């Protein structure tokens, strides 16, 4: 039975004694810990750079553990004194408590999908025999740990649906273990693959085993030491990991990633290689051949394999097509190449092969459009979408006649639709019930001008009836890097914020891929300052046009977005009231020395290169903090198991900011335990962190929180 949307009305707002007054009571924080300043200094091409908190890089030391404990005591003491913190948490819990269900995919005789009933720490995998049949639990990750900190990092089914491989990550780490289930009995097999990172299981067509990419077991520093020499293996079901067959390795290039895939007819094996987060190379061989040859040489362009049919390889590519096209390569005569889908004015974001045709998802001003093609590239239709937003899905097998996709917006959670391949008709499959009325909110796309004259878009969402008087709190979020597109997405936190009169803003900064590779290159390496200029210009536009004011503006971002917030904070501390950098890359001179940080050199550059050092040093957040400056209220968030952006970045940034701060605004760091970079974080931890961040925001923008109750 298909689910129907039942809106839940919001009652009138009840004013409390706290919110009836104009000002929020000020809170004093405990004294910061006395953080020892060492005398470590590095020489970069004649420039002496002090690194007084180098000792905080040792995440195994007793001194670091004591510092973490002391900082958390200061932070949580402050947060506990915010009188409306619990009310925010209660409302967030209500808003989070709705069923979240993915678009289903058919494997074997079953439709599989993930579902979180509302507040479960991890989504559960279900299956049903038909779209209208009752669903049964297939795998519940919540049973893998007592506190919900073991999550599924990747899943895959054998082509015949007989086996299911799932990779588990503990406490948010990027390290995963791969396990296997028999789908008929739902019994977990003895197979267990360890020391896998940035990889899941890719099944061979015969379903007897899978390919994966792993590392040698680290000798020390599991969560901080540099990861090198990734290798591709084949694992046969029912055998120990020690018997796995080495498929590909490259001893001459220790800092490359590899991913293997075999064609459905088992005739060809491909290995995609990359040296970082952009640029790739495709290797190939016949399955019975001894060695791989280069098919598409790296690493100036990006290649992504879509399908292989009758010795014809379909590849998405930006070689000679900055907005990407789809090409077809004759594997028996690799020089014979044909453009199947030509480059368009808008970015080709993804191509799927399913149902005997191609489905191409484009990005136009950071919003999706979808087109259907025959396998030879003949256009069939533009898919009529039921709404504007971020589209994902259209996956399946060649034989499928019905596919599924989802649409997400800023003001409503993911809604799932079925798609008839032959007719092109979409039907509502699932719309979740939520504890608010989506029609109460609206989103507009605004274009503003950056420092160098570039036209940059942003999405501005708010509750209908908003008055642009400069008194509204504003949450300004950005990322700007690594070809990652910032498109409409839903967050229960944003609804809570907009209910309070807040303006919720996503900026489509340079460094992403929203407008093709030119847009990406304009925000990387020596052009990275453009990203910060775009973000600052967005803040200035919102202030000038009275959406908010400097006293009400908060900026936020995570990972590369944490770098964004840190850089903008130290460059323009006068512009914001609150800064919320999360798991940020703050030490640009040493980031490449930890875990997989070396993979970001293609995006940022390296301090080992003199020319690149010069421009990195100019914006590195840690190294541009000025003693005696009045900085905005800052809540830095990180986690003890983050082995992507190691917590030392945030530790050192917090220590230096506390040392330098001349103003009264608090500089706090919130260090989560048994958590990582963000993926797989339990719902309970997500709600707690969001409650703390928004309580800090309201407190330091002098914005009273007015409780909202359901009718």
How would you explain this protein's 3D organization?
The longest helix has 19 residues, at 62-80. The protein has 711 residues and is of the alpha+beta class. Residues 1-21 and 675-679 have low confidence and may be disordered. The strands form 9 sheets. It has an 8-stranded mixed sheet, with helices on both faces. Strands 3, 4, 5, 6 and 7 form a 5-stranded antiparallel sheet that branches. Strands 8-9-10-11 form a 4-stranded antiparallel sheet, with no helix packed on it. The chain has 10 helices and 39 strands.
Please describe the structure with a list of short key phrases separated by commas or semicolons.
711 residues; alpha+beta; 8-stranded mixed β-sheet; 5-stranded antiparallel β-sheet; 39 strands
Structural shape: globular
Structural class, please? alpha+beta
Strand share of the residues?
Answer: 25-35%
Relative helix content? 10-25%
Total count of strands: 39
Distance between the termini: 28 Å
The major pleated sheet works out as:
8 strands, mixed
Radius of gyration: 25 Å
Taking pLDDT < 50 over at least 5 consecutive residues as the criterion, the unreliable ranges are: 1-21, 675-679
Write the layout of secondary structure elements.
Elements (H helix, E strand, L loop, with lengths): L40 E4 L2 E4 L11 H19 L4 H12 L3 E2 L3 E3 L2 E7 L7 E5 L7 E4 L10 E8 L5 E8 L4 E8 L4 E11 L4 E2 L5 E6 L16 E6 L8 E4 L8 E6 L5 E7 L5 E7 L6 E4 L6 E7 L2 E6 L7 E6 L6 E5 L5 E8 L2 E8 L2 E7 L5 E4 L7 E4 L8 E7 L6 E6 L5 E5 L10 E9 L5 E9 L10 E4 L14 H8 L3 E5 L9 H5 L7 H16 L8 E6 L1 H12 L6 E5 L18 H4 L5 H10 L13 E7 L8 H13 L6 E6 L10 H18 L11
Parallel strand pairs: 34-35, 34-36, 36-37, 37-38, 38-39
Antiparallel strand pairs: 1-2, 3-5, 4-5, 5-6, 6-7, 8-9, 9-10, 10-11, 12-13, 13-14, 14-15, 16-17, 17-18, 18-19, 20-21, 21-22, 22-23, 24-25, 25-26, 26-27, 28-29, 29-30, 30-31, 32-33, 33-35
Helix pairs in contact: 2-3, 2-10, 5-6
């Amino acid at each position: 039975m298909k689910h129907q949307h039942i809106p839940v009305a919001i009652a009138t707002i009840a004013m409390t004694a706290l919110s009836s007054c104009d000002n929020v009571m000020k809170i004093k924080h405990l004294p910061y810990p006395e953080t020892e300043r060492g005398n470590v200094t590095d020489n970069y091409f004649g420039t002496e750079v002090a690194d007084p908190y180098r000792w905080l890089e040792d995440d195994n030391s007793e001194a670091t553990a004591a510092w973490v404990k002391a900082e958390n005591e200061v932070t949580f003491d402050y947060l506990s004194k915010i009188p409306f913190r619990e009310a925010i948490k209660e409302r967030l819990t209500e808003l989070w408590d709705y069923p979240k269900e993915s678009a289903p995919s058919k494997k074997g005789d079953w439709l599989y999908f993930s579902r979180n009933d509302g507040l479960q720490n991890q989504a559960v995998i279900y299956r049903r025999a038909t779209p209208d049949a009752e669903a049964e639990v297939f795998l519940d990750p919540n049973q893998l740990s007592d506190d919900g900190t073991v999550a599924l990092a990747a899943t895959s089914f054998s082509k015949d649906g007989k086996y299911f491989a799932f990779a588990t990550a503990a406490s948010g780490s990027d390290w995963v273990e791969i396990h296997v289930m028999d789908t008929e009995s739902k019994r977990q097999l003895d197979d267990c693959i360890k020391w896998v990172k940035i990889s899941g299981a890719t099944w061979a067509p015969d379903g007897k085993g899978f390919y994966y990419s792993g590392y040698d077991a680290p000798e020390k520093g599991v969560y901080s030491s540099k990861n090198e020499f990734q290798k591709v293996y084949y694992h046969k079901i029912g055998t120990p990991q020690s018997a796995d067959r080495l498929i590909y390795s490259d001893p001459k290039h220790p800092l490359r990633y590899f991913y293997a895939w075999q064609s459905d007819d088992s005739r060809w094996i491909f290995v995609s290689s990359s040296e970082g987060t952009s640029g790739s190379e495709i290797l190939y061989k016949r399955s019975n051949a001894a060695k791989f040859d280069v098919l598409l040489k790296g690493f100036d362009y990006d290649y992504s394999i879509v399908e292989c049919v009758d010795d014809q390889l379909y590849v998405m590519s930006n070689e000679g097509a900055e907005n990407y096209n789809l090409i077809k390569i004759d594997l028996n005569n690799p020089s014979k190449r044909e453009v199947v889908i030509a480059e368009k004015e808008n970015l080709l974001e993804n191509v799927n092969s399913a149902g005997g045709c191609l489905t191409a998802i484009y990005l136009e001003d950071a919003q999706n459009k979808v087109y259907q093609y025959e396998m030879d590239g003949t256009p069939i239709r533009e898919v009529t979408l039921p709404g504007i937003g971020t589209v994902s899905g259209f996956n399946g097998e060649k034989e499928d006649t019905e596919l599924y996709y989802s649409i997400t917006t800023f003001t409503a959670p993911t809604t799932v639709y079925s798609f008839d391949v032959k007719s092109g008709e979409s039907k509502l499959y699932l719309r979740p019930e939520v504890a608010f009325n989506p029609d109460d909110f609206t989103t507009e796309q605004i274009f503003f001008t950056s420092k160098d004259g570039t036209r940059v878009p942003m999405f501005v969402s708010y509750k209908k009836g908003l008055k642009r008087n400069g008194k509204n709190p504003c949450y300004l979020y950005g990322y700007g890097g690594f070809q990652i597109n910032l498109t409409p997405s839903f967050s229960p936190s944003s609804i809570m914020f907009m209910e309070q009169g807040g303006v919720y803003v996503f900026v489509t900064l340079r460094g992403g891929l929203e407008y093709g590779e030119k847009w990406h290159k304009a925000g990387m390496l020596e052009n990275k300052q453009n990203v910060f200029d775009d973000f600052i210009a967005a803040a200035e536009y919102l202030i000038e046009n009275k959406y908010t004011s400097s006293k009400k503006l908060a900026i936020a971002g995570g990972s590369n977005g944490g770098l964004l917030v840190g850089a903008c904070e130290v460059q323009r501390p006068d512009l914001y009231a609150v800064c919320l950098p999360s798991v940020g890359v703050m030490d640009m001179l040493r980031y490449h020395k930890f875990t997989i940080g070396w993979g970001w050199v293609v995006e940022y550059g390296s301090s080992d290169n003199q020319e690149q050092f010069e421009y990195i040093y100019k914006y590195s957040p840690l190294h541009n903090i000025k003693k005696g400056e009045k900085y905005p209220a800052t809540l830095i968030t990180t986690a003890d198991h983050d082995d992507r952006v190691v917590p030392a970045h945030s530790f050192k940034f917090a220590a230096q900011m506390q040392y330098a701060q001349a103003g009264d605004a608090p500089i706090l760091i919130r260090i989560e335990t048994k958590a990582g970079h963000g993926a797989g974080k339990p719902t309970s931890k997500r709600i707690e962190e969001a409650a703390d961040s928004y309580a800090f925001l309201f407190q330091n923008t002098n914005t009273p929180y007015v409780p909202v109750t359901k009718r």
